[in-house]
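Changelog-linked ticket: calcium ion example.
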Amino acid sequence: MMSLVSLASDVNECAQDNGLCEHDCTNQPGTFSCRCNTGYTITADGHNCTDIDECKLQNGGCSHECRNTAGGHTCHCPFPLLLDQRNSSCVNVTSCALRNGGCDHICSLGAEGGVHCSCRAGWELNADHRTCDDVDECVSFSGGCEQVCVNHAGGFNCSCRSGFESRKDDPTKCQPVCEPVCQNSGVCVAPNTCDCPAGYPGPGCSAMCSPPCAHGGSCMRWNVCLCPPGWTGDGCHTAVCELPCGNGGRCVAPNTCQCPSDYSGLQCLTPVTTPCVPPCQHGAACGPLNTCVCPTGTSGIRCEKLTCPVVTTVVSMARAVRKGFRESYVDRCGPLGVQLCTKYRINQARVYLQAYRVGYKIQCPDKTR
Ligand SMILES: [Ca+2]
Ligand SMILES: [Ca+2]
């Protein structure tokens, strides 16, 4: 750590460990001194501080009893005298102005000129006629509490045992707590015990359905489910298909049919045609169970064998179309129409387009011949 070296030769002894002074350290040119807080005096070692016992010096200025304290002292008076405003002399009590007449709570002037103490509600006057002591209301009749009385300074509270709570209309009384709360006009008669009306046997007098209501159905009185649209049955487990499922299809969700493998569609009315694998050849149709239905002239599992000759077929595809032609003609032209010019126009004509489609077919000999 860096430190600035002052030009003067003085060393600040207070900078380290407070100059070993117990209270205050004062640095001076070439030296230092320890000082003590008010009520203390320096000891012979010049560093430590010790309490001054003021009571040993003219009784600390007290008219009666003096009690020494660390750093000070206090004066005390024998009953029924009170300390005066300067906290040193003891005087007779003649008014409520001095220290509230010595009263804890309420001071009033007595008939004979002396003062009279009294206490606020919930407190009672001590035998010293000044101090106010708390009244323990729970000692007599348990404070009027139905279950538990709790005393505190100036008052008391009623509380309830576990499973009960204070009644709103009368905090001295207790009522049982039911969790969950009793619904449907049920009455909580003991902790977590509802007295339920008929038809509501569930927790907290709720309706109870067995089997439970599925698909968002509401459980009503007497084990009845109120089902949402699209569902019906005891526990709302049965789906409703407004259009019935055909061909052995099952209604599995609202308006949803689950079809057998050979039918499809909303109501399972469309037969499913599955192509044969491998495919049938020579135009053969695919029959049930992946079998090919071979046309005349073919055989084999896939109708791949030809049993009759194949002949070429030619089909004429001739058709007539309209087509535009450009043709020239001579016309008069020029400023006075005296010149001759060649002009062009589009003329429509019907033409024939000739085409052929070449195909093949299996031609078996005529059996009748
Ligand atoms: Ca003292
Ligand atoms: Ca009390």
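Closing comment: Example verified and attached. Residues 122, 134-137, 151-152, 155-156 surround calcium ion (ligand 2) (CB under 6 Å). The longest strand covers residues 319-333.
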